[in-house]
UniProtKB/TrEMBL annotation:
Domain called HAT C-terminal dimerisation: residue spans: 254-322
Xref: Pfam families: Dimer_Tnp_hAT
Example GO molecular function: protein dimerization activity
Organism (species): Rotaria sordida
Superkingdom field: Eukaryota
UniProt name for this protein: HAT C-terminal dimerisation domain-containing protein
Length: 347
C-alpha cells in the first residue's frame, strides 16, 4: 500500500507542478474526448475524503494519463522524460489497477463516515452507531460475491486499457523472526478484563447537550459525563429540568447556538455551560479553525515571497474568528490613511 500511495502522490505532483506536463495532460483529455474528464486530486495525509477523490480521478482519467506520459516520453527529454517513464511502468502494472478498485470500494464507504465525523455539530451516539455500521459493512465485503464484483470491474478495466492482468512479479523475501528472538518469552495478561463502560455509553452521555440529538437534556444519561468533568450531578439535573421547557420556544439547532442562549445566564446554569464547553472542546472535528490553518499554509506557500509571519498570523486570526463582524469600509479607510503615498486610490 505504501508503494501505491507514493505513486498516486507523485502522479499528482508530476502533472500539477509543471505547466508543460499539465499541458500534455489537458491535450490527452481533449484527444480522447473523455466525457468524465476532471482534474487530478491531491492525496492529502490528514483528510480521508481527499484520498477517495484522488483514486476516483485517477480511474476516470487513466487513459489520458497513459497517453500524456507516452507523449512526454517521445517528445521530451531529460529528467521529465525519465520520471514519465517510471510512472508509466507503475501505472501499467496490474497490481496498481487491482489496488485502485479495492481502495475505491473501501474508501467510498469510509468517506461517508469521514463527512459525518467532520460535522461542526456532531451527535456522538448516532456517530457511534454509524461507525459500527461501517465496520460491519467492511466485514461483509469479505465474501465471494464482493470479490467477484471487484475482480470483474478490474478485469474489464484492464482489457479496455490493455493491461496484463496475469503479470508475474518477483517474489519478495518472506519476513522471518530473527534467531535471537526465537526463544524469547513475553509475559502478558490473557483473558477478558471486565468492561465497566463502553464508548457508546459515554457518547450517549455526551449527546445530552446537543439540541439535534434524541438524547438532548435527558437527566437519566448524564452521570458519566458529569463525573468526567467533576460536576455536581444533582445541580446539573436541576438545571436540565429548568432549561428543557425554556429552550422549547427557541430555535436552537446546534450546540453553539445552545451555548449562546445560556451564556447571558452563566450564573444561573454554570454546570450546564461547563458541560457544553467540555463537549465542544473534546473532539478534534469541532475545532473548525484547523481547516483554516491548512488553507493558511497553502496561502503561505503561494505567497512566500511577499508575506511575513505577522501577516500570516493576522489572516489566521481573521479566518478563525469568523463570528466577529468587521466593517471592511473602515478597514479600507484606515489602510488609506496609513499609506497616503500609495499609487492606488482607495478613497
Amino acid at each position: 500500500m505504501n508503494d501505491y500511495f507514493s505513486i498516486v502522490s507523485t502522479l499528482y505532483s508530476f502533472f500539477t507542478e509543471s505547466g508543460v506536463t499539465n499541458k500534455f495532460f489537458k491535450k490527452a483529455q481533449e484527444d480522447l474526448q473523455l466525457t468524465q474528464a476532471s482534474v487530478l486530486k491531491l492525496w492529502a495525509i490528514t483528510r480521508w475524503d481527499s484520498r477517495w477523490q484522488s483514486i476516483e480521478s485517477v480511474i476516470k482519467n487513466y487513459p489520458a494519463l497513459i497517453l500524456a506520459l507516452q507523449d512526454l516520453i517521445e517528445e521530451d527529454s531529460g529528467t521529465r522524460s525519465i520520471n514519465a517513464t517510471g510512472l508509466l511502468v507503475h501505472l501499467k502494472k496490474s497490481i496498481f489497477t487491482i489496488s485502485s478498485f479495492i481502495l475505491q470500494k473501501l474508501l467510498g464507504i469510509t468517506t461517508i463516515l469521514s463527512d459525518q465525523l467532520k460535522s461542526p455539530s456532531l451527535d456522538y451516539a448516532r456517530s457511534e452507531y454509524l461507525i459500527s455500521s461501517i465496520i460491519q459493512q467492511i466485514a461483509d465485503l469479505r465474501n465471494q460475491q464482493s470479490f467477484d464484483y471487484i475482480y470483474c470491474h478490474a478485469t474489464e478495466f484492464c482489457t479496455l486499457n490493455k493491461i496484463d492482468l496475469v503479470e508475474q512479479y518477483r517474489p519478495r523475501r518472506t519476513t522471518t523472526i530473527p534467531a535471537r528472538f526465537e526463544e524469547c518469552i513475553i509475559p502478558s495478561t490473557l483473558g477478558q478484563r471486565e468492561v465497566l463502560s463502553t464508548p457508546i455509553d459515554f457518547c450517549e452521555n455526551l449527546s445530552t447537550v446537543y439540541p439535534d440529538s434524541e438524547n438532548f437534556l435527558n437527566i437519566d444519561d448524564v452521570k458519566m459525563f458529569c463525573d468526567h468533568i467533576d460536576g455536581d450531578l444533582q445541580a446539573i439535573k436541576n438545571e436540565f429540568l429548568v432549561i428543557k421547557p425554556m429552550i422549547k420556544s427557541k430555535s436552537v439547532t446546534n450546540i453553539i447556538e445552545f451555548l449562546d442562549e445560556l451564556l447571558p445566564m452563566v450564573g444561573t446554569f454554570p454546570n450546564t455551560i461547563q458541560m457544553i464547553k467540555a463537549a465542544i472542546t473534546m473532539p478534534v472535528s469541532q475545532v473548525t479553525c484547523e481547516r483554516s490553518f491548512s488553507k493558511m499554509k497553502l496561502i503561505k506557500t503561494y505567497a512566500r515571497n511577499t508575506m511575513n509571519d505577522d501577516r500570516l498570523s493576522d489572516l489566521t486570526v481573521l479566518a478563525t474568528e469568523r463570528s466577529f463582524e468587521i466593517d471592511f469600509e473602515q478597514v479600507v479607510d484606515a489602510f488609506a490613511n496609513n499609506h497616503k503615498n500609495s499609487r492606488i486610490i482607495l478613497r
